[in-house]
Amino acid sequence: MQRLPTFLTLLSLLAVVACGPSNAPTTAAGKPDAKPVTDDARSAAPASRTLAAVRARGSLRCGINPGLAGFAFPDNRGAWRGFDVDFCRALAAAVLGDASKVTFVPLSNAARITALKAGQIDVLARNTTWTFSRDAGQGVDFAGISYYDGQGFMAPRSLNLQSATELGGARICVQSGTTSELNLRDFFASRGLSYTPVLAASEDKARSLYEQDACDALSADISALASTRSVLSNPGGQALLSDVISKEPMGPVVRQGDPGWTDIVRWTLNALILGEELGVTAKTAEQQRREATRPEIRRLLGAEPGFGAMLGLSDDWAFNAIRQVGNYGEIFERNVGGRSALKLERGQNALWNADPSGLLYAPPMR
Question: How big, in percent rounded to 5, are the helix, strand and coil portions of the chain?
Answer without folding.
Answer: 40, 15, 45
